[in-house]
Amino acid sequence: MGQRVAMISLHTSPLDQPGTGDAGGMNVYVIELSRRLAAQGIAVDVFTRATSSALPQVVEAADGVLVRHVAAGPFEGLTKGELPGQLCTFAREVLRAEAMQPLGHYDAVHSHYWLSGQVGALARDRWNVPLVHSMHTMAKVKNEALADGDTPEPLSRVIGEEQVVEAADLLVANTDTEARQLVDLYGASPHAVEVIHPGVDLDVFAPRGRVRARRELGLPEDAVVLLFAGRIQPLKAPDVLLRAVAVLLKQDPSLRHRLVVPVVGGPSGSGLEHPTALADLAADLGIADVVRFVPPVGQAELAVWTSASTAVAVPSYNESFGLVAVEAQATGTPVVAAAVGGLTTVVRDGVSGLLVDTHEPRDWAAALRRLVDDPDLVERLGQGAVAHAQDFSWERTAERTLEAYERAAGRMGAELAS
């Protein structure tokens, strides 16, 4: 492998705060992977669309990691659905940036999400370097498991993803499940798919003790804390947790004085159409007194919130991986998650948390009640969670990704020779 990689993250910057807008696990993925690649001697340039005229053209995000803000379309007001109209402008500016460097400046392109893959495919052909692509989410998968009130992904995205799958020299899948979806739904060659788990910062997300964390946050030491952390949108299904909490309180009204349900994050996606919908739901369910809305927080503070929790709920309708589930487990907190997508890999049912096969509030209430009623189970699963999380590290992710770049280069060379 050479010495420099062009990382393309068009629609969201790795510098953005995860938990609101379009910023989420992918942002964490891009910046953490870039940092670990740089630590192994690979310089990384991350190209992302500028969303403010005040942003500098280049930001040094870490030693060896530069974030390049590309002007493409109006700085503010563009939704993700409108970004395909700016692909040509974005691609032109990326190619222009490379043209100002010596020949052979980049050794590989790694694109994230289908919009970036469209640009990556063009850069691959112009620069004669391999394209590695990470989907993160896929339209066909999302459309198979839509939440009530959510909007299906458009055909234009489906076609765009199919084009990227065909163009990439190698596709990185987060889990075996995602790899099968790429093959079965998109016709990817099994030989062109590499399964590489994302990681977790085990220095930031480490056991700190529930009592200590609750003191930091001003939470009662004897509270039952059921946490949701992430973007507030139908896909992530925070409403499932709230409806389950309403069932819990109906079954056991005495729980009300001990129950705290923090929702850490902000509206995103179709959730932006009704930004107060979740708060309105809490009021309608009669649980507004136990639900606490917290704006998005940085990684260090998120680690305190997960540490303070009795359990972290991840009720998503689909997750290619589910970083927050790994992060929570690394702090010693069991996760109650929907048995969908990558969450079946991230959470070991009965070992590091509990998997729920449905999104029915009563089923979720039953799973949560097991933890509410059994502190010994919380302790046992918490220990299993810490052990399980050790299997996921960004250092290992970076090592495997470097191997993927080498393999992609080999595949591209074989194609050119044939």
- Separation, N- and C-terminal Cα atoms: 22 Å
Separate helix tally: 15
How much is the radius of gyration in Å?
A: 21 Å
Q: Which stretches are low in confidence, meaning pLDDT under 50 for 5 or more residues running?
A: none
Structural class: alpha/beta
How many strands, what sense, and barrel or not for the largest sheet? 8 strands, mixed
Elements, N to C (H/E):
EHEEEHEHEHHEHEHEHEHEHEHEHEHHH
Please bin the fraction of helical residues: 40-55%
In which order are the strands of the major sheet placed? 3-4-2-1-5-6-7-8
Sheet-strand content, in percent, reads 15-25%
Large-scale geometry: elongated
Q: Taking all residues together, what is the mean pLDDT?
A: 93
Keywords: Glycosyltransferase, Magnesium, Metal-binding, Transferase
Binding site for UDP-N-acetyl-alpha-D-glucosamine: 17-18, 25, 231, 236, 297, 319, 327
Subunit structure: Homodimer.
Domain Glycosyltransferase subfamily 4-like N-terminal: 24-203
